[in-house]
UniProtKB/TrEMBL annotation:
<protein>
    <recommendedName>
        <fullName>Multidrug export protein MepA</fullName>
    </recommendedName>
</protein>
<feature type="transmembrane region" description="Helical">
    <location>
        <begin position="99"/>
        <end position="122"/>
    </location>
</feature>
<feature type="transmembrane region" description="Helical">
    <location>
        <begin position="317"/>
        <end position="343"/>
    </location>
</feature>
<dbReference type="InterPro" id="IPR048279">
    <property type="entry name" value="MdtK-like"/>
</dbReference>
<keyword id="KW-0813">Transport</keyword>
<dbReference type="GO" id="GO:0046677">
    <property type="term" value="P:response to antibiotic"/>
</dbReference>
<feature type="transmembrane region" description="Helical">
    <location>
        <begin position="21"/>
        <end position="43"/>
    </location>
</feature>
<dbReference type="InterPro" id="IPR002528">
    <property type="entry name" value="MATE_fam"/>
</dbReference>
<dbReference type="GO" id="GO:0015297">
    <property type="term" value="F:antiporter activity"/>
</dbReference>
<dbReference type="GO" id="GO:0005886">
    <property type="term" value="C:plasma membrane"/>
</dbReference>
<dbReference type="GO" id="GO:0042910">
    <property type="term" value="F:xenobiotic transmembrane transporter activity"/>
</dbReference>
<feature type="transmembrane region" description="Helical">
    <location>
        <begin position="404"/>
        <end position="424"/>
    </location>
</feature>
<keyword id="KW-0812">Transmembrane</keyword>
<dbReference type="InterPro" id="IPR045070">
    <property type="entry name" value="MATE_MepA-like"/>
</dbReference>
<dbReference type="InterPro" id="IPR051327">
    <property type="entry name" value="MATE_MepA_subfamily"/>
</dbReference>
<keyword id="KW-0472">Membrane</keyword>
<feature type="transmembrane region" description="Helical">
    <location>
        <begin position="55"/>
        <end position="78"/>
    </location>
</feature>
């Protein structure tokens, strides 16, 4: 959308433009930003892996901390964004401005709190996250910089989601993509050129996040978007309740992702640093594969929110089924490619360590078998979260990394050894799929009933107008 578009013009586009074309136009920038973000996450893994196997494992250890930071940022960002899109669909722009400011400044404050506590207890923190004695020094060098940048990271997640849910995915992409590309450039300079090791990778990440934050903050005030202003900061339970209702599914998903990563590190630990490094690499690879599909789904969410608020349930249903079909095909294609070229993909990161290559290759193949099922799980979660069905969305969000993965990673390695570590995620994916199917079908039936009721109401309204 162009920079000088008005709020009324944006509303018309979001509620009247053809659904498939609208989703694709919003999805392209989010897919680009997600892919670039995943690419720079993989770049961290790639460059750090060149230092040593223990250094590679340190990046895996840091995943869980970054997931906590992301959890809070996404909780506030997704909750604020969901609520804002529905309010804009109802044409309540002033109140939406209060929600945006409240979400942004709350995230900034919580980021400062987390950074302070984390830096004070840094030594204990790395071992809590699953570091071994050989990995701990590398992990501390990495994590201390991540903590310093936590406030900007969390605030950036909020700004990104607020922009997306207003239908301004392009402006969100500019901030995210610029920071990601900068990180890829800075990684080798800091790690090898300045000989900073894992700390250099983290410092590159934080500098990039600050630049991204500044661009996102500027973009929040153009293109018909809500400008973030402190005077609109309204820390009331009425607003926080709606933010939490829309954001808690993201919190559960991200927090459980963090906990599951810690559990994975501890379960892989008895098999050596190579096992931790291999599973960290496989995790990054699948995050990259999922990023395109999640970016596509993020093109769906503002369309869903605007139209649900405007009572256009027919467009919500059409958008959901379009996204499910498209994402299933994409993930199936990625899974087939990953299965066919497993060894080559793993060797990109750590080809000189044959043990990492062997462990990672088998884990990657097993993951590919169930990977396409996640299209239904994630799209269902996005639908439920966007229309305000917090409890159902939280259950679906918790299923893949929590309800099923944590028991699997605690039980299966005891029964099958290292194979149990490698099959835990595929097993949880299957169970998450079967859990989400009835929840989704119940919600879709409810939307169809609302669509029918809306048609009757519109019909009676037209009849009344005709008689006057």
């Amino acid at each position: 959308m162009r920079p000088n578009i008005t709020a009324d013009e944006k509303f018309k586009i979001m509620t009247q433009a053809p659904v498939n074309r609208l989703i694709c136009s919003l999805a392209v920038p989010t897919i680009v930003s997600m892919l670039i973000t995943a690419l720079y996450n993989m770049a961290d893994t790639f460059f750090v892996s060149k230092i040593s196997t223990s250094a590679s494992g340190a990046v895996g250890i840091s995943f869980s901390l970054m997931a906590i930071i992301q959890a809070i940022g996404f909780t506030i960002g997704m909750g604020s964004g969901n609520y804002i899109s529905r309010l804009l669909g109802q044409k309540k722009r002033q109140y939406a401005s209060k929600v945006a400011a409240t979400g942004f400044f709350t995230a900034l404050f919580l980021g400062v709190v987390i950074a302070s506590i984390g830096l004070i207890f840094l030594d204990s923190l790395v071992y809590m996250l699953g570091a071994t004695r050989t990995i701990a020094p590398f992990a501390k060098s990495y994590i201390k910089f991540i903590l310093i940048g936590a406030p900007y990271m969390m605030a950036s997640f909020v700004l990104n989601n607020i922009l997306r849910f207003q239908g301004s995915a392009f402006f969100a992409m500019l901030g995210i993509a610029t920071g990601a590309i900068l990180n890829i450039i800075l990684d080798p300079i800091f790690i090898f050129g300045l000989n900073m090791g894992t700390g250099g990778a983290a410092l590159a990440t934080i500098i990039s996040q600050v630049i991204s934050f500044l661009i996102l903050f500027y973009n929040s005030g153009i293109g018909g978007n809500i400008k973030i202003q402190f005077k609109n900061f309204t820390p009331k339970w009425e607003i926080y309740k709606e933010i939490l209702r829309g954001g808690m599914p993201s919190f559960f998903r991200q927090c459980l992702s963090s906990i599951s990563t810690v559990c994975l590190n501890f379960s892989a630990g008895p098999y050596g640093d190579a096992a931790i490094a291999a599973m960290a690499i496989v995790t990054r690879i699948f995050q990259f594969g999922l990023s395109a599909m999640i970016g596509f789904g993020q093109g769906f969410q503002p369309v869903c929110g605007f139209n649900y608020g405007a009572r256009r349930y027919d467009r919500v249903l059409a958008a959901f089924w379009f996204c499910v079909r498209t994402s299933a095909v994409v993930l199936l294609t990625i899974a087939l490619f990953g299965f066919a070229f497993t060894s080559q993909i793993i060797s990109i990161f750590r080809k000189e360590d044959l043990e990492v290559l062997a462990i990672g290759s088998r884990a990657l193949r097993l993951h590919c078998l169930t990977f396409p099922l996640t299209s239904w799980v994630i799209m269902t979660n996005m639908l439920l979260q966007t229309i305000g069905k917090g409890p159902q969305a939280s259950i679906v969000a918790a299923s893949r990394h929590g309800l099923f993965f944590i028991p699997a990673i605690m039980i299966l390695p005891r029964l099958f050894g290292l194979l149990g570590v490698q099959i835990s995620q595929p097993v949880s994916d299957v169970f998450a799929f079967f859990l989400s199917v009835p929840i989704a079908m119940s919600t879709l039936k409810e939307l169809q009933e609302k669509q029918f009721e809306e048609k009757i109401w519109l019909s009676k309204t037209e009849e009344l107008k005709a008689t006057l």
